[in-house]
Specification:
heterodimer; A: about 300 residues; mainly alpha; B: about 525 residues; 7-stranded mixed sheet; about 35% helix; globular
Chain lengths: ~300, ~525
Amino acid sequence: MWTYAGRRLLLAIPTLLGASIIVFAMVHLAPGDPIAAVMPAESSKAEIEATKRAYGFDKPLPVQYLVWLGRIAQGDLGRSIATRRAVILDVRDALANSLVLALSSSLLAFAVGVALGLLAAFRQGRALDKLASAIAVVGVSIPHYWAGIILIIIFSVQLNWLPAMGASDGGDIVDYLRHMTLPTVALALIPLGVITRVVRSAALDVLNQEFVLALRAKGLAVRRVFTHVVKNSAPQIFTVLGLQFGFQLGGSVLVETVFSWPGTGYLLNLAIFQRDIPVLQGVILVLATFFVLLNLAVDLLQTLVDPRIARH
Amino acid sequence: MKRIVFALLATVFSLSLAGAACAQGTLRIGMTASDIPYTGGQTDNGFEGFRFVGYQIYEPLIAWDLTRGDRLAPLVPGLAESWEVKKGEPTKWTFKLRQNVKFHDGSPFNADAVVFSFESIKKKDAPHFDPYGSGQVAFRLASLKAMKKIDDHTIEIETDKPTSFVPYQICYMLVVSPAQWQKFKDWRKFAEQPSGTGPYRVTRFVPRERLELEANKQYWDAKRRPKIDKLVLLPLPEPTTRLAALRSGQVDWIEVPPPDSIPQLKGAGFQIAMNSYPHNWTHTLRLDKEPWNNKLVRKAANYAVDRVGICKSLLNDTCIPATGVVYKGHPWFGKPKETYEYNPAKAKELLRQAGFDGTKHPAKAVQLISTSGSGQMLPLAMNELIQKNLKEVGIDIDLQPVEWNTLLTRWRAGFKTPDNEGLNAWNISWNFLEPWSGFGRFFHSKSVVPVSVNTMPYINPEADKLIDEAERTFDVPKQNEILAKLHEIIVDDAPWIFVVHDQNPRALSAKVKGFVQPQSWFVDLTAVTVR
């Protein structure tokens, strides 16, 4: 077990190194000039060249890569060109905001999705089932950024109940919660649809098994039958919950941009338009590392549950 | 199920009530910038940065009077009380500085602070040189060669040649507090706790999210002490987000509402502020290649464009038609021989004279345009209309849309690069705040790329002579006369397709009172109140 874990950990290093090369190359191959983007339209070529030299963008790419890698090894992701703040601080704040949304939207999707799915299964073919299925289809089909815009129009512009953008108006925790509400709902729509459908079919599978018929024949109350069904469909439900939570962690460039939610997606979008190469590299690298580590953790957990996996 | 729905609704409702109360006298502005403009003195994000950050926290020696909307914003004494050119030595200027002015950190404003700020831009080996800030503003101070302190309240500036444009350059040099910089010896840290002499001081800085400022109660000009307590700046680059923020009451003021939202905003009780200001939206033509090397074709194009149509139907009256570099009524307009109005018949006739025929021998050109960008208005829709207009008279233009920064990078390099060889024009909007931005950089033969940005290139000895003469003329009315003469020549030569002047629309909630939209890129926020 421990040797396996150690081997996997070592394997993660070349993966991360490969990711860092891809991140660096991608960012530099993209058209546009990081310095030109922050200089005024009227400035001359000579002034832009001078600023480029000041930032080290005049050196050959492999040299820039090694310098960057050397700094990362010391935990320094460099400085943003646009704000001149340390990238690590920007990424830290953004990641925290994105994690909050991932958690809240996952919780909402789990709670509503599981409830709807189970209700639909127990009322198969009836109006409630049709309604739940309709919600599920709508949830997975509507583009979530569009849903975000519609939510803003209804709850912010028309009803004036909730703020349309940002993470805070400079207020307390309640202020933050108010700002979170709409993006949470927008982000929950897709997992909600997926979870509802998977839970419904998992529960239906169990409901159609003979032991349920036997339980009913024995005269068990509906509520007790329900508990048995839930228990038996739980493994399948947990798998989909885990998967969906993983997706949510990736954040969403589109939803965060629509709501100007200061998370990693919004930061990425900003950095792309500002050609803020250090930020772009930093965010992608941190997200990539996050996923590599998450994968590693999942693999190790699986080995813990089922030791046979470790042998392969 | 019912109970769950009720619980959810109750939560949403209670959350919505909690935030309804709001501090009094706070003005919240949604900017188009994607980030908070640089707060360390010489700001970035173009003139929007100067508008909301630069000129609110800091001040120049010579400032703009932005209190009136009925005239072009003139220059007035700022941190300097007076200035004059040295008699017999026209390259030396003496500035008398204002006394008893204090920076936000309490340290005194004096000649040392002015020299310190100048060196942070111009002196590359100074410990307080700010490479980033310098990159933003050095080119606007091109003719200022040296600065020295005469006494605590007097400085002297030396220019590289006799030039009357000095006040138009010095108005962009913002004076920062040397005492505050000494605390950190680092411009990035200074930018997080900036200190200037302006009417607002920074209280909270959340990178990429918000900048909070409060009124500077000790501001030296009692008449311009802010009426509001607090000013909050939010970067909201997405137009729809900006609009939603205004309509939901999260901000009180947004820059550039989408033109098609304006009737709706007016209907909902919002104020739309507009005024003419030195902005033009044009196609800058390539003059050394067919078809634009022929003056008749250039004039034909100018007569073919339906400017009123663009302003009325496309932009909901947020612009006015342009028939020259500057608009009618501007002191530099003069009396041009041609008034370019929508006249397709005349355009066709001019094209025929030039030897082009719409069917057998159409004039063809490739124009590089942007998909968005500061001052670019609605580039795609506007250019499609222009393309259609030109097609109708027999000029085929091929539009090549690129991203805004790519357009700027390619434009700076000029037409004679492998990338740009196939092009015949670029569509970029300009300011003409002062003679150099309006004329010198585009129409003087000495400004040909790479020295400056005469990309066309426009070579006209007569224009050179007038630009030089304007620069040597220190009397403003006389200078205006010379520039008006120059403008008449340029309108007749039509090196650009003149299209529209933006009206700088902004939308304000009904609570905002006392704002005057000046004829300028900048604003005065001291008289504004928020009920």
